[in-house]
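About this split. The held-out portion is used to measure sequence recovery: a designer receives only the structure tokens and must propose an amino acid at every position. Recovery is the fraction of positions where the proposal matches the reference. Here is one held-out target exactly as it appears in the evaluation file.
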């Protein structure tokens, strides 16, 4: 008779099937009907959703949980956020950054968010953020996969020491090459930065993830240069363009040429819906643009699109809870992904598709995959988006790392049930 360390029974998977999952050590050992199997611990997930963990492919862990220090962003714009962060990083210490980042990782684990790609600012001669987050990456490694991107926030060429410091950060062990071409002094400098950053990645065998065209300016076309350099250097499948908000405002004819180039280069897109809807369109009167890139249109071309979170309680965004379902919920609304198939896709975007973008090994619920999963108080992936429910149990690398009691509301109404959970029986189609 089969025996496991942990057996998760009766859970509904995101594809709607009901299966038991047996875990041995840090691996999924079996999945299917495991009736009669023995286990050190049995977790009854009957009626609940069991998913691979949430994944965030775009975050800023050096800035998180700093909201209000040294002041709040009065205009609500990207540019005031950048200048505010410039003040904050002068006064922040390595210890304080470590403390904020670890506190954020606690939030993430409690939400079943077990892999995060964080950009780390390299425009600081002391590289305090890099030192802090390299340390945090080691500390959280047993339970959270933290991937770091060397991010020259003030411009790879525009900031006088950014280029040298970015290279130094990569030498220190930062995983991915970042950039911000739309923030360079000229379009030409932006294109040159894309070229050099892709060459650095090709030489070092690294992935690329650029903040690309995070603007309402329809003429910001650095994604075109990124697609060109990716195919020129043979980096297909290893490059992501984050934000791509200018595409929202681009000419439709131009986009009809651009999307096949992105698809050919196998570039992934990472829109960040909470932040894009908050920061973009701030210079508009009415109609006021949404500022989200063309998600469904890219997916129709076969382009991988993930949803990123970007910010929680920092100079750019005052809210956030490390819940990737909040991110997908906003994306679903702003991109109008409202059919049952599109809603289900929004769930896979914050799980499987984000994992693919980060090149995570062993992600999933198949035998041999890393034993990481989350049990949610919802009946399906679409219901999870609607409820953004409690994470009843989170398992990371074969260990239970978070539990939360089911938390039904207690009603005091004559002739009505005494509790309610807001689940709904109607089929999601
Ligand atoms: Zn960002």
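Reference sequence for scoring:
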């Amino acid at each position: 008779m089969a025996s496991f360390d942990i057996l998760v029974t009766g859970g509904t998977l995101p594809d709607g099937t009901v299966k038991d999952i047996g875990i041995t050590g840090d691996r999924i050992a079996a999945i299917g009907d495991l009736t009669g199997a023995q286990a050190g611990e049995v977790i009854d997930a009957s009626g609940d959703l069991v998913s691979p963990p949430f994944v965030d492919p775009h975050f800023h862990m050096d800035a998180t949980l700093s909201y209000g220090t040294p002041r709040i962003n009065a205009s609500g714009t990207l540019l005031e956020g950048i200048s505010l962060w410039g003040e904050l990083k002068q006064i922040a210490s390595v210890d304080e950054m470590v403390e904020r980042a670890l506190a954020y990782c606690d939030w993430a684990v409690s939400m079943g968010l077990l892999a995060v790609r964080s950009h780390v600012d390299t425009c600081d001669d002391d590289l305090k953020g890099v030192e802090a987050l390299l340390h945090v990456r080691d500390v959280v490694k047993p339970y959270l996969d933290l991937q770091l991107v060397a991010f020259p926030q003030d411009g790879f060429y525009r900031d006088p020491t950014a280029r040298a410091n970015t290279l130094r950060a990569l030498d220190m062990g930062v995983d991915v090459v970042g950039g911000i071409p739309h923030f360079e002094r000229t379009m030409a400098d932006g294109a040159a930065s894309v070229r050099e950053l892709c060459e650095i990645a090709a030489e070092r065998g690294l992935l690329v993830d650029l903040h690309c065209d995070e603007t309402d300016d329809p003429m910001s076309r650095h994604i075109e240069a990124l697609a060109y350099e990716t195919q020129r250097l043979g980096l297909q499948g290893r490059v992501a363009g984050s934000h791509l908000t200018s595409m929202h405002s681009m000419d439709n004819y131009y986009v009809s040429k651009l999307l096949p180039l992105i698809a050919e280069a196998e570039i992934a897109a990472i829109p960040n819906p909470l932040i894009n809807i908050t920061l973009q369109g701030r210079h508009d009167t009415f109609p006021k643009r949404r500022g989200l890139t063309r998600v469904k249109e890219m997916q129709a071309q076969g382009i991988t699109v993930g949803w990123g979170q970007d910010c929680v309680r920092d100079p750019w965004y005052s809210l956030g809870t490390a819940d990737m379902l909040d991110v997908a919920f906003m994306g679903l609304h702003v991109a109008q992904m409202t059919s049952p198939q599109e809603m289900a896709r929004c769930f896979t975007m914050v799980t499987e598709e984000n994992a693919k973008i980060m090149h995570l090994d062993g992600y999933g619920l198949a035998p041999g995959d890393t034993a990481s999963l989350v049990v949610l108080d919802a009946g399906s992936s679409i219901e999870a988006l609607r409820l953004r429910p409690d994470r009843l149990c989170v398992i990371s690398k074969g260990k239970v790392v978070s539990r939360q009691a089911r938390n039904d509301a207690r009603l005091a109404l004559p002739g009505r049930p005494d509790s309610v959970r807001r689940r709904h029986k109607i089929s999601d189609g």
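Annotator remark: The longest strand covers residues 3-12.
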